[in-house]
Amino acid sequence: MDILQFEKQSLRLPSAIDEIHDELFEQKHVRVYVKRDDLIHPIISGNKWRKLREYIQIAQFNGHKHVISFGGAYSNHLYALAYAGKELGISTTGIIRGDELTAESNIYLTQMKNWGMELIFINRADYQQKRIPEGFKTSDSLIIAEGGFGNAAITGIKEIVHELCDVAFDHIICTVGTGTTYLGLCDSTSKTIVHGILTLNNLTEIESNATLLNIPIQQLYSSYIFGKYANQPEELIQFCEVFSHKHQLKIEPIYTGKMFYGLYDLIQKDTFKPGSRLLALHTGGVKP
To answer: Domains in the chain and their CATH numbers?
Structure first.
């Protein structure tokens, strides 16, 4: 299937923008909106499709029959790639961190395999170097970096700002994993301040990626990581539950929960001037 046809038939684009209300927002005289990229598609939602789109188009235009990428055992990126490959007729391979794993280690790996993705499990030392196993044929393959990082993904992320049209926001807030979404937003607008909420201790990596892509960093916060990646303390879990119930907006504690937790804290600390219009980007991450 052609990528434009797939977007038209299967995706909800541009994604909606919804305002959410809270006593804190009224007290601080700010308005908060959510860019609902989580509603683009039940599986390839959020920034996953944004980052993959240009790569898939490159693969189709250049005759690549195969796409290879990297990720962990619960990678949203690989999950989305596996599904997109199935729908668009592109074979895929996922290089998975952890040679102790199998396709039966969790339901997401199993589903990726069922969608036709070849899963290759490598040890952590090789994964850190992003080594593709010897003998694996890559000549006709498009290789995508972990999380989709790269200029093609930056181009896809810029569509988020293009979809805002004439709606003016003073600040955009997003979660930061590999930093691709954050850097794409930073590169898309000079009028709106972009605030990134780090979800793991990789500030040095983000700074290095920004230098590599020649994109100036705007605002980054490392106060809402809650320890190691994927750590889920009770305080954060409770926040996600209360927020989801109050706003009828599902979030999870690994990515979007940390972002909204940080946003509330920044508002409480008067980071934003009264009268500010804030746009929080919901990047999905909640698997079905």
So the answer is: 3-45+150-281 (3.40.50.1100), 65-139 (3.40.50.1100)
